[in-house]
Design brief:
Strand content: 25-35%
Radius of gyration: 13 Å
Order of helices and strands: EEEE
Shape: elongated
Structural class: mainly beta
Largest sheet: 2 strands, antiparallel
């Protein structure tokens, strides 16, 4: 897990802005999470808890 460190995110559908938490921001360098990801750079994902 990656720490958000004071980062914010804007929901492009609603326009709402909120602080990222450690639970909502995840980074990974695993090459098999995104099909066709061959650039060798870590990817960042934002989860949407329900």
């Amino acid at each position: 897990m990656s720490s958000a460190g004071g980062a914010y995110v804007r929901d492009l559908r609603t326009g709402r802005v909120g602080a990222l938490s450690e639970r909502s921001l995840v980074s990974s360098a695993a090459p098999d999470l995104v099909p066709g990801d061959t650039n060798g750079v870590a990817d960042v994902f934002v989860s949407h808890p329900r």
